[in-house]
Every structure is written in structure tokens, then in C-alpha cells.
Amino acid sequence: MLQIKNVYKTFNPGTINEKKALRNLNLTLKDGDFVTVIGGNGAGKSTMLNMIAGVYPVDAGKILIDDIDVTRLPEHKRAAYLGRVFQDPMMGTAADMWIEENLALAAGRGTKRGLHWAIRNKQREEFKELLKELDLGLENRLSTKVGLLSGGQRQALTLLMATMKRPKLLLLDEHTAALDPKTAAKVLELSQKLIREDGLTALMITHNMKDAIHYGNRLIMMNNGKIILDVSGEEKKKLTVEDLLHEFTRLSGDEFANDRALLTK
């Protein structure tokens, strides 16, 4: 479902601020894979997701989604294949629009617009049923402006919007990092539920090592723009946070440089 082939990315090349963000990165995700991604500060995790989404052009290499070469496609054209939830709960929704209006925008992704009432009664009932799955009471607040919701409610809504059209690939970019622990746990459980029920392929960056081990069927660790560890199945289930820290030191020759990760182990 996703192939990253020999991808390189350098920011500010030839200057004092040159940063080699990705170095010959290779990664393949099978249909239905739920992969968690961990790594220290500057490892290249977010750069990888931004390259997949088309935020930055690659310097070299290829990116394929469901065997479609998207390497040169601009960000707005790749959106037809992707769902994405950002770290900031404010980024995935329109604050001044109602809940049902946000959902209608998500439902219309990739379809031609016509001249008819934007939200029909049948569609409104469908939205209510979807929102019930969140168990947040939002099904009774369709005409509430999204900007009035809490961060957790807004992130849950963003997740629902990102998965409504069953994207070929779901990108979760530390999407619970800005939430309190209880709300973060609820959003993670919801993420796993939607991924399982819809059979989605997903890539989730997290700073929480316990979450990286607990969720998904596969875990990759990045360092210095490369993947240095890739585990799945029973091997992944048996991992501990201490195992990951040991493997990072063994494979990179350095200590894991991410205070948030260490504080949440």
C-alpha cells in the first residue's frame, strides 16, 4: 500500500544550516499494516510523513501509494489517497463551521460538487450515527461550532473525518501529544478501532514508547534519517521500553534523545 524507495531529503543544502533529514530511506507497508514510528529528536519521522503527504518534494527516490507513483504529485492531489491527523487538534477542522459542515466537507472529498442543499436529512442522520461511535455526545451537537469543542473532542472529530472516505493510507502525526493522558488514551483506542473496522493501512508517529509497543502490528525506529529497527508480530509484542532503549543504543551508538519519550516510558 505504501512504498518509499531510496528517498533522500536535505534542507538548506550548501549552507551552514544544512540538515540531511532523510538518507536513502526505504519502507514498504502492506495493505492493512498499522505501523508505529518512534525515534529521537531530528530522526526524520515527521519529515517522512510530510514527504508522503507531498508537503516537501523529494531530492531523490520514489514514493508509491497502492502502486501509484505520487512522487511528483502536489499535496492537494495526494489528498485523494490520504487521511491525516496532526499533532495540533486545531489543524484538522474548520473552527468557525458547525460539526455537520465539517463532516460534509470530509464526506465530499474527491467528488464533484453540485447545486443542491449542502447537507440533506439522510446525510445528517448518517453523521449522527458516525458521531455516536465516538461516545462523546457530539451526535446531539451537529450545529455546534467546532471551535467550541475541547481539544480531545476536536481530535476525535478530525480522526473521524480523516477516515470517512476510507483512505488508502492514514497518517497519524503524534496526534495525541497535545492531549491530557486520559483523553489521549481514548483517542488512541478510537484510532485503533477505526483502523481495525475499516481495514485501513496506517502509519503513526508517537513519542510514547509504551503506545508504540501496544498499538499496531509493526514498529519501526528511526535515527539520523534512516530506519534502524523494524519489528512485527510476536517479536513486537514481547518488547519492553527497556528493550527499545537498549536496541537504540546498540544500533545507533548513541543515547535516545527525546525527553518526552523518556518521561512517558
The CATH superfamily of the largest domain is known as: P-loop containing nucleotide triphosphate hydrolases
Please state how the strands of the largest beta sheet are arranged side by side.
6-7-8-3-9-10
As an assembly, this protein is single chain
For the record, the CATH class of the largest domain is Alpha Beta
What percentage of residues falls in helices of 4 or more residues?
A: 25-40%
Q: Uncertain runs with pLDDT below 50, 5 residues or more?
A: none
> What is the number of helical segments per DSSP (H or I, 4+ residues)?
10
CATH architecture of the largest domain: 3-Layer(aba) Sandwich
Percent in strands: 15-25%
Number of domains: 2
Distance between the termini: 31 Å
* Element order: H for helix, E for strand: EEEHEEHEHHHEHEHEEHHH
Class from helix and strand fractions = alpha/beta
Gross morphology: globular
**Mean of all residue-level pLDDT scores:** 88
Number of strands: 10
Calculate Rg over CA atoms. Answer: 19 Å
Largest sheet: 6 strands, mixed
The CATH topology annotation of the largest domain reads as Rossmann fold
Tell me what the structure shows.
- The radius of gyration is 19 Å and the shape is globular.
- The protein has helices at residues 45-53, 75-78, 99-107, 121-132, 151-163, 181-198, 209-214, 233-237, 241-252, 259-263; strands at residues 2-11, 19-29, 34-39, 60-65, 68-69, 82-85, 169-173, 202-205, 218-223, 226-232.
- It folds into 2 domains: 2-81 and 167-263, P-loop containing nucleotide triphosphate hydrolases (Rossmann fold, 3-Layer(aba) Sandwich), CATH 3.40.50.300; 99-166, no CATH class.
- The strands form 2 sheets. It has a 6-stranded mixed sheet, with helices on both faces. Strands 2-1-4-5 form a 4-stranded antiparallel sheet, with helices on one face.
- The protein is an alpha/beta fold.
- Helix 5 packs parallel to helix 6 (181-198).
- Helix content is 35%, strand content 23%.
